[in-house]
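wait is this the right file?? whatever heres the structure
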């Protein structure tokens, strides 16, 4: 009889223990305050990049970085809007390019809450370079990838990443390895020089930005703001301060600012027959354009095989004389005409021209937009469709057409021994945006 009794006692002990454990659990739960519920941490539906805000119709378009899609949401006066520091904000403070944590309603169609993202890398007034072929943007030495839906904003309008030039400044927002938005804070415009035939073959300097050879039909892409443009050809200079506006063409007549060094003439030589060599003071001289010469006497020698040599002394007294030399008659005639250009400024600098690399065996063809004037680094290449010698490295391609917005694109041209064909989007009509 002892064994059954012991068995019953053991079962009773187990039941008491289980009952006690259960009581203990219920006791712990009972310490919760009446009516309280566990806190649930609120999480955003996605991180969104603001692409546009329509305050009239109360709609906002985001680039949804989670789904890589553009999405539109309605909002109301009840939508909560906070800064990254939890400051109350209004929708009027939200701008294209901002990156926000987005909270939507139960149906997913309405915006309930918007808060500036705190974990975003943000860099203001940064220089950028864009490699559109690789979808990469470099900001202050750091390279980020980007999606086709990246928000690139200039003056409130969406533009393509390749429309940024290396001289533009932007506010960058993104995360490690990925760019979300680029808002242009300082863009570029255009200078179109006119009245500069006396400077052809000389050099052009845009203050602090570029040194170029002077050629026909130039259109320069330069940062917005006040820029000093200087042309120099021998002793002749022309300088002007130009106010450049973003995405606008500014025409400047360089002849209005033309000047030359004191006591220096610009001499035009007319030599017959053509092909003869001209030596001034013993130096071979190119007389296809005007020649800078100090006032006073100079020795002149002209030779051509099969003709009698001419040697003589000319006396330069006037600002713009014309010297005619005919080898057959061995005569020299000096005519004078006063320089009619007024002098308002001068610049003694004659900067060296940077040399570009070319692949002379291959061509670049621009097929569209048809009828647009094509410029590469400010030099006119023709009207699309057109072809020209392939230049290597980083170039700025500018397209302009009457009654249309002018566009520039930054392109990296590889040395790959291949011809290149470009087709750019149609230029927008002025006022259409």
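ok assuming it is, sequence goes like this
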């Amino acid at each position: 009889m002892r064994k059954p009794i012991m068995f019953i006692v053991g079962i009773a002990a187990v039941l008491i223990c289980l009952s006690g454990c259960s009581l203990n659990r219920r006791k712990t739960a009972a310490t919760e305050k009446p009516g309280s519920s566990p806190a649930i941490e609120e999480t955003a539906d996605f991180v969104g990049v603001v692409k546009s805000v329509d305050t009239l119709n109360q709609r906002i378009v985001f680039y949804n970085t989670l789904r890589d899609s553009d999405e539109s949401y309605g909002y109301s006066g009840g939508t909560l809007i906070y800064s990254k520091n939890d400051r109350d904000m209004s929708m009027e403070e939200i701008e294209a390019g901002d990156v926000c944590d987005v909270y939507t309603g139960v149906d997913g169609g309405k915006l309930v809450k918007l808060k500036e993202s705190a974990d975003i890398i943000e860099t203001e007034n940064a220089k950028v370079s864009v490699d559109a072929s690789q979808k990469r943007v470099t900001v202050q030495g750091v390279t980020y990838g980007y999606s086709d839906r990246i928000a690139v904003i200039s003056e409130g309008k969406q533009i393509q990443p390749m429309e940024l030039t290396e001289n533009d400044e932007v506010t960058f927002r993104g995360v490690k390895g990925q760019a979300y938005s680029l808002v242009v804070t300082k863009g570029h415009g255009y200078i179109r020089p006119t009245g500069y035939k006396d400077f052809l073959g000389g050099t052009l300097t845009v203050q602090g930005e570029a040194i170029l050879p002077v050629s026909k039909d130039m259109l320069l892409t330069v940062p917005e703001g006040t820029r000093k443009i200087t042309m120099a050809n021998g002793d002749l200079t022309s300088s002007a301060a130009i106010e450049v506006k973003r995405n606008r063409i500014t025409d400047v007549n360089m002849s209005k600012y033309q000047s030359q060094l004191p006591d220096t003439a610009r001499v035009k030589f007319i030599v017959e027959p053509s092909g003869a060599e001209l030596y001034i003071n013993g130096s071979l001289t190119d007389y296809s354009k005007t020649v800078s010469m100090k006032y006073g006497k100079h020795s002149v020698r002209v030779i051509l095989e099969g003709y009698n040599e001419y040697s003589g002394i000319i006396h330069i007294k006037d600002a713009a004389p014309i010297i005619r030399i005919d080898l057959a008659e061995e005569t020299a005639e000096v005519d004078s005409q006063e320089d009619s250009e007024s002098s308002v400024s001068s610049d003694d600098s004659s900067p060296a021209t940077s040399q570009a690399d070319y692949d002379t065996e291959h061509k670049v063809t621009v097929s569209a937009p048809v009828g647009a004037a094509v410029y590469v680094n400010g030099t006119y290449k023709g009207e699309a469709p057109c072809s020209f010698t392939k230049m290597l490295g980083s170039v700025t391609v500018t397209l302009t057409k009457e009654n249309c917005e002018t566009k520039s694109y930054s392109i990296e041209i590889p040395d790959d021994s291949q011809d290149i064909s470009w087709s750019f989007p149609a230029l927008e009509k002025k006022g259409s945006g």
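The first strand starts at residue 46 and ends at 54. so i think its the right one actually
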